[in-house]
Amino acid sequence: AQSVTQLGSHVSVSEGALVLLRCNYSSSVPPYLFWYVQYPNQGLQLLLKYTTGATLVKGINGFEAEFKKSETSFHLTKPSAHMSDAAEYFCAVSASTYKYIFGTGTRLKVLA
Amino acid sequence: DGGITQSPKYLFRKEGQNVTLSCEQNLNHDAMYWYRQDPGQGLRLIYYSQIVNDFQKGDIAEGYSVSREKKESFPLTVTSAQKNPTAFYLCASSIEVASAAFFGQGTRLTVV
After folding, report:
1. What is the pLDDT of residues B19-70, one digit of tens each?
2. Looking at chain B, which terminus has fewer C-beta neighbours within 10 angstroms, N or C?
3. Contact at 8 Å (CB) between B93 and B32?
4. Measured between beta carbons, which residues in chain B are less than 8 angstroms from residue A99?
5. How does pLDDT run across A29-63, given as a tens digit for each residue?
6. How many angstroms separate the CA of residue B33 from the nearest CA in chain A?
């Protein structure tokens, strides 16, 4: 079975500061990992995904994430936060089935 | 443009009435999903379908029903047996196990 834990339901950063959103996963088989962003009253938009290969994955809007098998982590980072990054972020895992398991989300607030 | 269309965006129903949420995709994806989103709980899987005329229960299927008569369509019926149906409902689709899921814009259902 797979599971995802996102540490911190709310994260605040200053504009221009580093964004770090944490995600740890559990999977009995090699996982596929995803980060999504959601703006209010909208669907989820894919930021980036890890399937196989390079462990550092670059996504849209300057975000990237690193797959660390030894730590079972897939943390999301962005060097410099922008006001438009304020949203809710979800980490998700999938494995050998078609099911996607989502974390409970982290709401990012960007302070001017 | 290819994508997933959910309708309506907002839906109000009286308690005890069944209601059907529409989900249509033109991405030619085999798999489709329904998730329920409540504040602080992330996305919970209601039903998913890997191919036409086949679907499986997710984690919170009680009080819901689906059909998959066409590849493009995966409607969700919220029945009167669902004890707390007010929520944000998201439909998604994917092409294969390792690919990301694409989401619709969601339907916010309010039962009064």
Report:
1. 999 999 999 999 999 999 998 888 999 999 999 999 999 999 999 999 999 9
2. N
3. yes
4. 45, 48, 58
5. 888 999 999 999 899 999 999 988 888 999 999 99
6. 9
Interatomic CA distance for residues B8 and B49, integer angstroms: 21
Q: How far is Cα of residue A13 from the mean position of the Cα atoms in its chain? A: 16
CB-based contact B31:A98 (threshold 8 Å): yes
Closest chain B residue to A52 measured between Cα atoms?
A: B98
Residues of chain A contacting B40 with CB distance shorter than 8 Å: 9, 104-105
Q: Which residues of B touch A (CB under 8 A)?
A: 4, 6, 31, 33, 35, 40-43, 45, 48, 50, 58, 88, 90, 92, 94, 97-98, 100-106, 108
A96 pLDDT tier (thresholds 50, 70, 90): low
